[in-house]
Amino acid sequence: MFKISEFSRLSRIPLQTLRYYDQLGILKPAKIDESTGYRYYSAEQLLVINQIVIFKELGFTLQQIGHLLQEDISAEQIRGMLRLKESEIERLLDVERSKLTQVKERIQLVEREGRMDKEQEVVMKRVEDMHMVTYVSTGTVDDIPFLFEVFEGLLDRNSRSSLSGPQMVLWDVPSSTVHAFELEVGYTVKPVTSKLPEHLNLRFLPSETVATLLFRSDSAFSETACIDLATWIERNGYRIRSDRPGREIYVPLSGEPGTCLIEIQIPIEERENRL
Predict the structure, then answer these.
(1) Which letter does DSSP use for residue 67 in this model?
(2) Residues 135-188: pLDDT tens digits?
(3) Which fold has domain 118-270?
(4) Which of 35, 157, 183, 244 is the most buried (most CB within 10 A)?
(5) CA 244 from centroid of its chain's CA atoms
(6) What pLDDT, on a 0 to 100 scale, did the predictor assign at position 247?
């Protein structure tokens, strides 16, 4: 048995906290000397201390911890809770890393002061007409990977064999909501003779003139691509065609999993008053 001061050293829990745990009934001394009132703790109670610390890190209140200790939670259940907490923290870290990347990109944008880097060179070109098989939904850029998963799940063997080219996304601004875009995800397709699966659409894209930017998905300039496109369109006397969707094309880079080349294509036309 250990005096409370000794147990405090072993558990690294302050004396005041141990007394508070005793008052709450979360961790009572194994023995109290009736003549002196000294509190004594056993080595086994260090395991209870570890559980309390774990539960606190998981976000439980002391009152909730008291109930959990009474339920005699198994080690496997605690491991499961910790795994859930681990996943939650990893998600939060991913969000914060994404925010950090955006901050760094904003800093680079400010430092550039409107200068366009070679990697951000805008190219105007004519794209040929094409057919696409698409899945239509509303959402934001964060929803695109999920929409492709839905698209892939809807394909049957016949329609899958007719697909060609890289992934493509069509962007448009719907009139019904200001919080999301109308998105079409899919692939270019050979002539389709069979019926498409339910919820998939055959889309024809006519030949048109587009302003384009090509960059790596892991590039520091990915966040500034649309700004550079807008600057180029404005400076060169063009305007964006409101009757045509914008396009994004994703080309995976071999040997670099998770990284691809992205080409943004914005349909443009000359302004009527262009000099």
Answers:
(1) H
(2) 999 888 888 999 999 999 998 887 788 888 899 999 987 666 556 788 999 999
(3) Multidrug-efflux Transporter 1 Regulator Bmrr; Chain A (3.20.80)
(4) 183
(5) 28
(6) 93
